[in-house]
Design a protein that fits this description.
Chain A: It comes from Roseococcus pinisoli. Chain A: This is Type I-C CRISPR-associated protein Cas7/Csd2. The complex is a heterodimer of chains A (312) and B (225). The longest helix of chain A has 16 residues, at 47-62. Chain A contains nine helices and 15 strands. Chain A has 312 residues and is of the alpha+beta class. Chain B is α+β, with helices and mostly antiparallel strands. In chain B, strands 1, 2, 3, 4, 5, 6, 7, 8, 9 and 10 form a ten-stranded mixed beta sheet that branches. In chain B, strand 8 and strand 9 form a beta hairpin. Classes of the chains: A alpha+beta (312), B alpha+beta (225).
Chain lengths: 312, 225
Amino acid sequence: MSETSALTQRHEFVLYFDVANGNPNGDPDAGNLPRLDPETNRGLVSDVAIKRKIRNYVALAKGEVPGHEIYMRDGATLNLEHKRAWQAVLPEVSKAEEMKKLPKEEAKSRALTRWMCANFWDIRAFGAVMTTGVNAGQVRGPVQITFANSVEPVMPLEISITRLAATTEKDAEDKGGRTMGRKHIIPYGLYRAHGFVNAPLASHDTKGTGFSEADLELLFEALSNMFEHDRSAARGEMATRKLVVFRHAGALGNAHAHELFDRVKTWRQHKGSRQPIGDEATDNWPAARSFTDYAITVDRENLPAGIEVIER
Amino acid sequence: MAFGVRLQVWGDRACFTRPEMKVERVSYDVMTPSAARGILEAIHWKPAIRWVVDRIHILRPIRFQSFRRNEVSAKASAALADRAMRAGSTQGLGLVVEEVRQQRAAMLLVDVAYVIEAHFEMTARAGTEDTPAKHHAMFTRRAAAGQCFHRPCLGTREFAADFALIPEGAPLPASEWPADEAERDLGWMLHDIDFAQNRTSRFFRARLVNGVMDVQACLAEGTIA
C-alpha cells in the first residue's frame, strides 16, 4: 500500500546493460546457448528475463515492506494468494464453485483486484492474470518491457570444463571419476532494452493499478541494481550501464516514443575516434571487449515541449 | 467513411497468435483486424465509438523467427480447491512456480510494418455531446503527437508498436512488398471476437492483393463463427 498517489505522467526508458564472459539469457531451444537473432547475429534477452530480475530485486530490497510482496516469486503458491484476497474482501464466500467466476457485481470484483494490486508490487507494475482456478480477475500493469538486443553482433563461445568427480558409480568407473561439461559465454556484449510506463494504466479510475511515483522510483532503482544481486556461475559479470528516462508532462505523453528513443545513440570508440555502430571505418577495429569500447549519447537539442530527460 | 484514419505502425517483432496454435504460439502471417482495432483503441477509444478496420497494408516481407521462453502453466483444479476448502485448510492447494514450469516456443514475425485504414461508427452508448468530428479530431491529434492511453502492441505486450499518423491526402509510405507477388491467400483468419454474442470468434477468408488486405471486401464473402 503506497503512500503516494498513482502515477500521472507517461515515461519511456532506455536501459543499457552489458555482460562480460557470461550468458545473459540462455535459449532453451538451443541447449542453453545465449539467445541470438539468427538474421543479425545480435544477442537477445527476453522481456521476462528482465522482469524476473526486477522482481527478485524488489523482493530483496523491500521484502519486509507492506505492499511490496512479489506475486510471481520463486516457490510462490499462486492460489493461496487468490484465496487470501477472497477472504480479505469477501469472507462470506466459502464455496469453490462461487470463486470460479468473477462476482457479478462489478464493485466486488474491483475490490478484489484492488486488494491484490495494493499488496503485490509486481501486479501493480506488470499486471497479472489471476484467473487460475480461484478467480481474482485480470490486471494490466503500467510497466511494459521489450526484448533487449545487443547493439552489435555477438559471438557466443562454448567453453568445455572438467569436473574431478562423477555423479554416478557407473560414470566413476567408465570415466575414471572425471566428467566434462559445457559453458556458453559471450565474451562481451552491450544490450539495449526499451521500456514504457503507461500512466493511465496506473491512475485510471477503473483500469488503474495504483502504481505510484514511489513505485516508479523503485522500478528505476531495480533496473540500476538488479544485476548486482543476480551473480551466478552462468551470468559472468553483468551490470547496468545506463538508464535514460524520458518523463512526459502529461499522462498521454507529449512526443512519439520512437523519436525519443532515436535521441539515445550508441557509438563505437577506439583510440580516441568515435564512429556510429556498423560504420565502415570500424571494419578493422578489434571486437568490443569492454564498455569503454562504446559510448552512449543523449541528444537534448530541441527536446519536444513537456519532455524531461533523466539520466542515471 | 467520412471520418477515416490511416495509421502506420511498425516494430522489430510481432505475434498475432493463431487460436488453433496457441500453446506453442504461431503467429498469423499478418496483423489481424482485431489486433489493428486494439492498436487504435490504445490511442483513442470511448464507449461511444466502435473502430472498424477497412484495410491493412503490409509494407514489409513476411518473415518468421522462433523464440522459446520459460512460462508458467499455473491452473489449479477446481476439485482440489473444493477439497481444500471443505478441509478448511489451504494445505496442498498451492502451485509452486518451478514445478509448473513450461517452456513454450513462439513463432514470431520479425521486422513488421503496416498501415491500418479504419473508420469508426457511433454506438448506442453515444451521448449528445459525442459527435463523430470530435472523436476523429481527438484520435488524429493524439496519433500525430505520439500520445496514447497505453502503448499499443503488435499482438502481445512485449512487442511494443511505434506509430505515426498518415495525414489526410498524404501518400502511403513506400512498401517493400515483393513486386512479383500479386495475390496471396492467407486462409481462414480471425476477424474479431464478438463480445455481444458471448465472445464468439469470427473468422474470414483473408486475401492479400499486392500486399493489401481489404478486410471489408473479404468480409463481404462471409464469415464463420
